[in-house]
From TrEMBL:
Name of the protein in question: Ionic transporter y4hA
GO cellular component: plasma membrane
Keyword field contains Transmembrane helix: yes
Organism listed in the record: Actinoplanes siamensis
Pfam family, one: Na_Ca_ex
Residue span(s) of domain Sodium/calcium exchanger membrane region: 36-188, 222-362
Length: 366
């Protein structure tokens, strides 16, 4: 075994998926004591990070536009797996879990990741510069899909409560998926230059620092470890979910906090990558990650949940409440004013982070 392969196999992203599956085999179908639940939660979080890492390795090997799809699909599988796992065991309290998770993802990406990226970029360069054509198109798509999937169910009349009828859900799922795929095509093919980093003077930078693509063997190894990590995430989530739900309930927090926890867990790798890109003067890359994550969270999760509802019992509550609609509307207005000029300072970053803080506070204290 060569030193390079030995070093690769000693990496934590290789060990964690294996440990997660081993823990899943040992704990499946058993009542877990608190120390074991804590260990399973650590392995679950580590498996999510490992899965995203291996998805990025595969994505780097296959190139664009397939690379973006690999990472988005991997993250969506994790998100959908956590949502469906909790919905199958949560009863009536989990009927709005998909809505809570997707809305939390939108608020975290469009205010949290975007806000901290702008703040880091503005502190480094005084003014954070990005391409308004690409960023505006991405933000408009996120606003459209979010409104279609999360706002309209509160106003339709075919079904009581904030839910779609089966036909309406199918339409929203197909429209969301279609818009996401159209955006990927525009981003990677027809108008790729709109999504490339630019300098303060407006010059497009097309010389990103890329490592050499991984070998075919390394990519196949990462693909196998990606599948192994996803199995570990799905299985461990089922074992940890009762403890998470009971902990939220015992703390006196509303059930929607569970959705926030899922969104934070799933979006942690994207947050780290976006902040690193902003620190390297690649503001457009940061905003691509933020808005691309928001778009995938809605455009891929809603169709997947719509298909899962064929087998799941009970209604699917997608419509937002009044407080959530106000926060979403404010996010759309503030985000539009942020992206239209193509330049932002620390104030815009602070405003978005203030919106995120308001969302987190009101999620815990509605």
């Amino acid at each position: 075994m060569t030193p390079k392969i030995r070093s690769y196999l000693s990496h934590w992203t290789v060990h964690l998926p294996v440990l997660a599956v081993a823990a899943l085999v040992l704990t499946w179908g058993r009542d877990l004591p608190p120390p074991v639940v804590a260990l399973a939660a650590v392995l679950l979080a580590g498996s999510v990070l490992a899965a995203v890492h291996h998805a990025e390795v595969v994505a780097h090997r296959v190139g664009e536009p397939f690379g973006s799809l690999v990472l988005a699909v991997a993250v969506t599988i994790i998100e959908v797996a956590l949502i469906v796992t909790l919905m199958t065991s949560g009863g009536e309290k989990s009927q709005s879990l998909a809505r809570d998770t997707v809305f939390a993802a939108v608020m975290i990406t469009c205010n949290g990741i975007l806000g901290i990226s702008l703040l880091v970029g503005a502190v480094r360069r005084r003014i954070a510069v990005f391409n308004p054509e690409g960023t505006g198109a991405a933000f408009a798509t996120v606003a459209m899909i979010a409104t279609l999937s999360l706002v309209l169910p509160s106003f339709t009349t075919s079904r009581p409560g904030p839910q779609f009828s089966p036909d309406q859900l199918a339409f929203a799922a197909v429209a969301s998926l279609g818009l996401y795929l159209l955006f990927v095509t525009v981003q990677t093919r027809r108008h790729r230059d709109y999504f490339l980093p630019i300098t303060t003077e407006g010059r497009v930078i097309d010389e990103e620092e890329h490592l050499d693509p991984p070998s075919g063997r390394a990519a196949l190894t990462s693909l196998g470890l990606l599948l192994l990590a996803l199995v570990g995430v799905v299985g461990l989530a089922k074992g940890v979910s009762p403890t998470v739900e009971s902990g939220v309930e015992s703390a006196g927090l509303p059930p929607s906090v569970v959705g926030v926890v899922i969104a934070v867990l799933v979006l942690l790798p994207e947050t780290i990558a976006a902040v690193r890109a902003a620190a390297r003067d690649r503001m457009q890359t940061s905003l691509n990650l933020a808005l691309g994550s928001a778009m995938a969270s809605i455009g891929l999760t809603i169709p997947a949940i719509a298909v899962a509802m064929i087998w799941l019992d009970g209604p699917l509550m997608l419509g937002l409440g009044g407080t959530q609609m106000v926060l979403l509307a404010l996010t759309v207005v503030v985000g539009t004013l942020t992206v239209v000029p193509g330049r932002a300072n620390v104030l815009q970053g602070g405003v978005h982070l203030g919106l995120l803080a308001a969302f987190l506070f009101l999620a815990a204290s509605p």
